[in-house]
Amino acid sequence: MNLFWTRVLTIAAGVLLLLFLSNDFGLIDIQKTAVVAAVGIDAADEEGRVDVTAQIAVPDASASEKAGNVTIKNARTVGDALAEINRKTGWYPTLVHCRLIVLGEATGGRDVFGVLNYFLRSEFVEDSCLTAMCEGRAEDLLSADSPIGELTAVAVTKVLSSEAQKTGLVCVTNLRDFAKGYYSPASSGFLPLLSALPEAESEGGGQSAALPCAAEEGGTGQSSKEGGKKADVFDASRTALFAGGRCVGVLEAAETLAFNLAATRTDFAYGTVQVQQEGKPVTYELKFKIRSKKVRLTLDGGPAALFRVRANAQIADASRASGVVEIAKTAFVPDFVLRAAEETLQENLRSALAKAAAGGCDLFALRQKLHRRYPAQEERYAAGLLQAAQPVFDIRFDTVH
Amino acid sequence: MPFAASLQQNLKAVKAVLPAEDILVHAFRAGDGTPCAAVYADGITDKKGIAELAVLPLSRQEAPRTAEALQKALPYPETKLPQDVAAACQSILAGDALLLADGVAGAVTLGAKQAAARAVTEPQTSVTVKGPREGFVEDIKTNLGLIRKRLPTPALRPETLRVGRHSQTAVCVLYLDGIADAKVAEAVKARIRAIDIDGVPDSSYIAKFLAQKPLSLFKQAGTTEKPDILCAKLLEGRVAVLADGSPIALTLPYMLAEDFQSSQDYFVSPYRATVSRLLRLLAVAVSLLLPAFYVAAQLFKLRLLPFPLLMTISGSIQGIPLSPGLELFFLLIVLEVLIEAAVRMPKYVALALSVIGALVLGDTAVKAGLVSSPAIIIVALSGISAYTVPDLAGTLSVIRLAYVVVAGSLGTYGIVLMTALILYYLVTSDAYGVPLLAPFAPLVGKDLGDAAWKESVYALRTRPAALRPKNRTRLRLVYRGGKEE
Amino acid sequence: MDKIKLRQICFYFACVAPSVKFIVYPATLTYEAGNDLLLAALGSFLAQGLVLAAVFWLSSRTDKTFFALLQGAFGKAAARAVYGAFALYFLFSALLPMLEQRSFVMLVLYENVPSVLSYAPFFAVSAFACSKGFKALGRAADLALPLFCTAFAVLIALAVPEADFGALLPVARRGAGIFRGGLFGLNWHAECAYPLFFLGRFERNKGDAAKVLLSFAAGAAAVLLFLAVFYGVFEDIAVLRQNSIAHISKYTTAFTSLGRIDLLFIFAMTLVNVFALCVPVQMCVHCTHAALPRCGRLWPALAASGALLAAVLLLNYSFLEMQQLVTQRLWAVFLLFAYAVPLAAALLFGLREGKARPAPRRRAPQSRRKRAPRSHRGREQARRIHPRKCRGRERARRLHAEKHLRQKRARLHTEKRARARSARQGAPARGGREEGA
To answer: How does pLDDT run across C52-79, given as a tens digit for each residue?
Structure first.
């Protein structure tokens, strides 16, 4: 290093050190930052305005997390609300660790991208965060007591985890995927529909069969641990359908499962089938391992949506007493049960397709398929495709040999 | 000034140059009664050897008439004929004895140097679990002997030069003829000859004069205290420099990759050695970058920390009065102070200081809310990691501080820019025609096998190409795993 | 003389040059060409490949520098003028990538609002790098190779599971968009002019052009793969993702316990990008130094970096306007300097050098340099065909040669020692070489 560079470096080092020691550059460091773990957005009473709830992860000295929810009512935009959090609390909210965006039920009545585009514009917000809709107000959902941890956001993200998606119980969507659907030619999308089930209401709540049980178990566990403190559990087995950014329908738990089995990344699922055996109704719970799946659009003789599913099934449980040999052969599923399961899946898929088509939601991305595979005929079919497309099923469940 | 034929005149001349009281004159007579004298420096000369092999034989025979005859008459193994009084005085100061006889217009110097030297022991700076344990000492002759013992080849070329106007320190340049690049050896010698300094206390002084960039933060010459390592480097085609009074030998040209090699790597399996090298590389990266990223993450880029870790850190830094940058900066300074004190303090105080360091500065500071526990963990990890490459530890500690300052001021991009600057500096640094960052930049594919990772001994057939050795063949493979090639 | 190695040129095209195309280029290309972005990029790469092939064809016919060629043809003043013009062009071509990187840095590497001065230290680094000539450029390319390969492989591996390559269908439906994408993307494909200034500064060997073109193809393949994955991940919202390299891989790592581990690889890519951004400034300094040798390298380096710093500060809030101006209106500048001039120079000087004198003798490649004498070639060939059969003979020949050499060496050694002893008593004997010559 010659003398020139030595001098330059010495001066630069001196200046930098002086700045470093004399000033913290007015930086917003970790101590001045409010780490927002989840954002809830509700439609405000006033037209066109929103109530924004930020769930802030507040660490205490023992390094455990506590939630602090801050709600800004009647904000013009989400960005405005977040700025107001800063003005009111003195903390600078950062959304880089925001893992969840929850839309209140009422927001679904108008184009949700009116509130979501804030998250797409900013580089400081991760569009990998999970996005969901909830029954009632998002503010209430984020205020629910979680049975898993202190932060409701953490509990909900576990409900919406990729593992849950793989088992087909939930249709998990992140902001990017939802936005991709919205800005695609189909202008459609779906979000998991969250509902908080208080322990008191969990019995006979009218939801899917599995959920009240889960609520009961969670509640019991929590009670024993925390001396009778009641906690909420979260259900996301239903799916809200969107077209043009508006909520146009809801898939029930069975339809959600069918959609997952046919079209998403689910490769391992549980489903129930009711059959008549010896004149009595018997319920079988089957475990499915998906081997292959495909949804295709064909235009031969009119548009048709071809659903092809290949899966292996295994009995997980049955509602009747079985013999020892039958239990030992639990991997073997009787043919009539398999056919009944195929029939159930077809019915649920047909129902999901019909619901989506009725609302104008391109749930199975048929318009996208038309655009990609048949660009020459896009103009001809695009308009009425959802209504015109007839479902064709090629579903085959096999037993494990 | 030439020697006279008179003993008294010669003694007077010598005393005129060396009036010091530790320059002793032992007067005696030869067998025929001719007055003779041995002049030597007290304390550094082997008096017994002079008495038995010079004084006693001469006292039993007739005094020779010429210096050459005097030299032949003595059974002394190492003798020289000095040109004049000044040269003889230099030899006396170097520990030799000067033998004078009346009527002889000349003198003989006897190689009788016997400086107090410590025994050959394992150097504390490079301890090995497996492998040779000998280390260099302060005596250059002993060190040369240790090298000669390992390389008994006529190709080994030592050349001793004198450096220091007053110290006249012996500096020996060594290389293997036919292997090392002769141009490098000549350049090294030329630079040593050009040194005009009053004294050379240690070889590190020589290193400064041999450096291409003397102001560089990075080392410019390789150093070792072990003869086995030095011999291995000579065999690779490097030039070594030994200085009298220093147990540290220098090797040139130097490449940064050398510091990541350990002698142990060559004694264990290549897989183990490769893992060790990668660990060292990782440790250096951790040592340099971990504190900087910790600061940058807290000040500029929270996303660098996973959410649970962020919560943990956020919880533990609550109430800390210093900003993250200053906190780390001061802790790193404290670490350097502790290391500095631990190196210099008497051993019996070390225990007390380590208790103070660990308890007072660690635990109590955290409890008092002065520093956070993650910061202490980061600094400790960084400090320990630096010592996986001990030769670089000093440099790393300075760069680490710079990284923290840059990270605290400019954030993650500052870290990237600082890395780019250091890399640009390193890639453009050459010494004796060898790039400092070879074999990585410029990329010398054949040399990577003993730099980035460690190949088996069979694969190391050639010497490092970056050193441009005259003869590249290191290994002639006749047998490998029972197969003849 | 400012030298560079052919290997380093190859590494530059394979690893350094692609890194600048991973920021705004994909989104801009998507804006113009939609899902046909690959075709637009491919067209640009083919045009660049053509220019590179022409320049390396010229390189095979002359060992002169571009300056010497210009001087020989038009005189020194003209050569200086051309170099001066190129210096200005390189300075101009460096501006947009710098603004692009500044924006990337501000948005991706910081979460709070940093001062514009946070980017300023880059110019100190570039000034330092530029003052070191092509050595810094070449060796930085050597270092960039492992960095780029690791970072690129990891980021792509993390992104591929999220990509739906069906989004690239239907192909070639946007003819005008593809053309516009290619034309407006010229400033990201301007590095094909650089080899013109490497002429005469690297050791020429047979097959240089093939090596460089292969490396360039590897770099182009990396960019095309990146573009495909990028569009596959974002589809219709791709145009929103301006800092594409920072986004494509985050979805895999978002909910893992390690967090955004991909950020470390993004930083590594940013480092490669710093090397890449220094290159046009280095070329500018090189041209200035060649045109005005008296001013050395340091002052042009400081001046160029200072000018760019001033421009970046001035245009701090005008990135989009600048981008539009440079890509949509000033594309002709890039077409002229990066494509037309190198092509014209290659044709003009290539034909001229070919006519004026025979093509220079090329050095044989390393593998052939130490080839056995013609008389031994048959044996060599036989050994390759029948290794076992010939091994014994080969060994005997080697042993014989070694024995002969030893005897000769011993004789010489004895003679030399005798001579030395007689010349001066006690002088140290000169030892023979440890190993055979």
So the answer is: 999 999 999 898 999 999 999 999 999 9
User: How close does chain B come to C125, measured CA to CA in Å?
Assistant: 6
Q: Tell me which chain A residues have a C-beta less than 8 angstroms from the C-beta of B319.
A: 61
Please give the full DSSP string across C279-342, using - where no structure is assigned: HHHHHHHHHHHHH-GGGTTHHHHHHHHHHHHHHHHHTTT-HHHHHHIIIIISHHHHIIIIIIHH
Which chain C residue is nearest to residue A179, measuring alpha carbons? C237
Q: Which residues of B touch C (CB under 8 A)?
A: 153-156, 176-179, 300-309, 410-417, 419-421, 423-425, 427-428, 435, 437, 440-443, 471, 473
Instruction: Give pLDDT tens digits along chain A (401 positions).
Output: 567 777 887 888 888 788 777 765 666 777 778 889 999 999 988 888 999 999 998 876 555 566 788 899 999 999 899 888 888 888 888 888 999 999 999 998 889 998 898 998 888 888 889 999 999 899 999 988 876 666 888 889 888 988 888 888 899 999 999 999 999 888 899 999 999 887 644 443 333 333 233 333 333 333 333 444 556 788 899 999 999 999 999 999 999 999 999 998 888 888 888 888 778 888 888 888 999 999 999 998 889 999 999 999 988 888 777 677 777 776 788 888 899 999 999 999 999 999 999 999 999 999 999 999 898 888 888 888 888 999 999 999 998 76
Cα–Cα distance, A346 to A365 (Å, whole number): 18
Chain A residue with the nearest C-alpha to that of B322: A24
Please state the rounded mean pLDDT for residues C154-163: 94
**C128 close contact with A: CB closer than 8 A:** yes
Q: In Å, how far from its chain's centre is CA A391?
A: 26
Q: Give yes or no for a contact between C41 and C168, defined as CB atoms under 8 angstroms apart.
A: no
Residues of chain A contacting C170 with CB distance shorter than 8 Å: 371-373, 375
CA C79 to CA C71: how far, in whole Å?
A: 5
Contact A1 B215 (CB under 8 A): yes
SS3 A269: strand
Token readout for A378 is 């896009």
Interface contact flag, A99 C255, Cβ < 8 Å: yes
- d(CA B443, nearest CA chain C) in Å: 6
Among B178, B304, B417, whose Cβ lies nearest the Cβ of C435? B178
Q: Is the CB of residue B171 less than 8 Å from the CB of residue B242?
A: yes
Tens of pLDDT along C416-427? 666 666 555 443
**Which chains touch C (3+ CB pairs under 8 A)?**
A, B
A98 touches chain B (CB under 8 A): no
CA distances in angstroms from A130 to A135, A255, B144, C105, listed in the order given: 16, 21, 71, 26
Contact A12/C124, CB-based, under 8 Å?
yes
DSSP assignment of A58-121 equals EE-TT--EEEEEEEEEEESSHHHHHHHHHHHHS-EEE-TT--EEEE-GGGGGS-THHHHHHHHH
Is residue B288 within 8 Å of B399, Cβ to Cβ?
A: yes
Q: What number does CATH give the domain C6-366?
A: 1.20.1740.10
Closest chain A C-alpha to B485 CA, distance in angstroms:
49
Q: What is the DSSP string of C379-429?
A: HHHHHHH-HHHHHHHHHHHHHHHHHHHHHHHHHHHHHHHHHHHHHSTTPPP
Q: What pTM value is reported for the model?
A: 0.85
Q: Which domains does chain A have, with CATH numbers?
A: 31-251 (no CATH), 252-401 (3.30.300.210)
Quote the ipTM score: 0.85
Q: Enumerate the domain spans of chain C.
A: 6-366, 379-423
Instruction: Check CB contact of C240 with chain A, cutoff 8 Å.
Output: yes
Query: In this complex, which of C110, C125, C429 lies closest to B411 when CB atoms are compared?
Result: C110
Tell me the C-alpha distance between A311 and A395, whole Å: 8
